[in-house]
Amino acid sequence: MNQPASAYFLEDRHDPNETHTLSVLVQNEPGVLARVIGLFSGRGYNIESLTVSETESQKHLSRITIVTTGTPMVIQQIKHQLDRMIPVYRVVDMTLTKRAIERELAMVKVRSTGEPRVEALRLADAFRARVIDATTESFVFEITGNTDKITQFIDLMRPLGLVEVARTGVAAIGRGPEGM
Amino acid sequence: MTDKSHDPNQMTGAAMIVRALIDHGVQHLFGYPGGAVLPIYDEIFQQSEVEHILVRHEQGAGHAAEGYARSTGKPGVVLVTSGPGATNMVTPLADALMDSIPLVCITGQVPTHLIGNDAFQECDTVGITRPCTKHNWLVRNVNDLAKVLHEAFYVATTGRPGPVVVDVPKDVQFATGTYHPPRKSDVHISYSPRVKGDAMQIRKAVALLAGAKRPVIYSGGGVINAGREASKLLRELVEVTGFPITSTLMGLGAYPASGPNWLGMLGMHGTYEANMTMHDCDVMLCVGARFDDRITGRTDAFSPNSKKIHIDIDPSSINKNIRVDVPIIGDCGDVLADILQVFKAEAKKPDIKPWWQQIATWRARNSLAFKPNRDVIMPQYAIQRLFELTRGRDTYITTEVGQHQMWAAQFYGFEEPHRWMTSGGLGTMGYGLPAAIGVQVAHPDSLVIDIGGDASVQMTMQEMSTAVQYELPVKIFILNNQYMGMVRQWQQLLHGNRLSHSYSEALPDFVKLAEAYGGVGLQVSKPGDLDGAIKEMISVKKPVLFDCRVAALENCFPMIPSGKAHNEMILPAEASDPAAAFAGGKALV
Ligand SMILES: Cc1ncc(C[n+]2csc(CCOP(=O)(O)OP(=O)(O)O)c2C)c(N)n1
Ligand SMILES: [Mg+2]
To answer: Which of A169, B30, B237, B517 lies 20 to 30 Å from B79, alpha-carbon distance?
Structure first.
């Protein structure tokens, strides 16, 4: 192997990347989100999407949902690295459970008149997006669904006068009666 | 409201801190005062149960606490002020995190109402230290302080040990609240490290060990951290199985260097036999080590034909660099005990004679050979003499970072755990001198030697003053090659010998420097004078700077060069060639 002179062993790794959704149950205390984000930036992991909110306020529990990409070995590392943080209760790889539902919400602002405006409405209807604000020259649509559906909807709106988008990021939950 | 004025658990935050230290059995505290910790210093002044050691720089306090912790197995405790006090602690915290050393560091913080205002000596201590601690806390309410302090000790010392920081604003130190002694409920319920290994995995491991033809045990700092009992169990396992054993830099002493199955250290500057055994083995038992890049060399060529068993208390160590076949999460001591029990009940010592014969041929190459010299002290020879002349004594060795560190690891034989303190993961120059001070505080009657380099010791030299103040007779044994030798070696081997800024120009006169501090300075440059000077150093009951002038351009071998595998080591020119080694090996077996 040819490499520049270095005190480190420089290696290319060619394992294919995978996308996984992790649900992380944490103690809701100051700095906990900074710890999680710091772990990702510090160790060079990717964050595709991250959502967080308190889910059980009397127990001070928050649930963080992270969509990340990496080789299988890296994804396993991420899970273990999260798991060993002191305020983290549990980490579940929702992608591995194969039984998770993922949803995202987006608000999509479109500005147009005439035929494009009519077309936007028609598409919104097909995607079950709701109109939550309207003027004579604009709409704000609210749409929920998995990431692909939302991305597809946004792509369709682009030629129809897309102004801006606000997305929540992914929330995920397992199917069936059991909790995580 | 009830009258709390007579409740003995009502006290100020500052008093709680000292009380918690006492409740956790802390006898020594390393620190440096400043505005944001004055209430705590006031409490320290008014008691005598905890002895405070005043350092000269907060980094010194941190490394001293690390040395203290590593030589005793107890947590090291540090107290520093806000702002610069806290930032000066960052290096030792990062060092302790890398080497899994339990530290509890208490930092002062500006009063809560000033936090975020860029107040005098304010810094975001929890933000800065978050990635270099196992966990940290900012305590905003005096009534949370007792719980947080107890949790801090628990987190630092259990599971995979590590440093923690408790940041206490000055108003919280002044405020009065309720203290409680340590209790179980003080700990996050989300934190429960696993100690006991999975029984199924242990059986799988024993089956692999029992069927091995070319086994090796590769042990690390985790065995030392798991306590003396773990080292005993490791020795017993070697005895019962008859397997060869090597260790990382961090693990030296768990198995004695004089033991018959010892292969020497492995890795970048490990012995030929250790690295070849790792490369060619069919079953590898990794105990409390983490397959770090100084150990594995090229990962895609690392021990390609072996089944790997990995015992580690930290699940994130498993499959991080190297994929293993049988991971066992648990404390090294507990898991070794279980493996031994199952092995003794169900397996017998495998016959591995041919493997030992193979190893003997590798050993016979004598990969640590160096050219003796009558006029100049060879650095390896200096360590050999130091070892011989301190043998049988109650000795602790610390090091700085560089060639001297590797020579110390190669040529000083460690017989017991907790006797060897070196900065392994972070590779912190300036570690050894303050670490030696911490070790000496814990073991006042022992011989404590820092094997140093001329460049490294200058990074924390000011702690000589601490050693003199507290009458800590540490011996700073400097292998003075007038270079940042390890940097020079890399430049020679990899950068066309362009020695860019690696010459130690304007070195101080270490003898005068020692005297200026009130210690003793010794200097030797002739091999014939070395023994006498070492004996003198040992007999002096004061801190000593020993300026050992050694061959300037000696390189540290063997060495796995970058991008190479274990079986592609560079051996010193003095090593036997394979044919001679083979003959020698034959003679040995
Ligand atoms: C704080 C710090 N800065 C830089 C380095 C990089 N470094 C590693 S070894 C070394 C040279 C050490 O020189 P010396 O202490 O004289 O030891 P020698 O290698 O000569 O034995 C340097 C600069 C380091 N390890 N630590
Ligand atoms: Mg040097």
So the answer is: B517
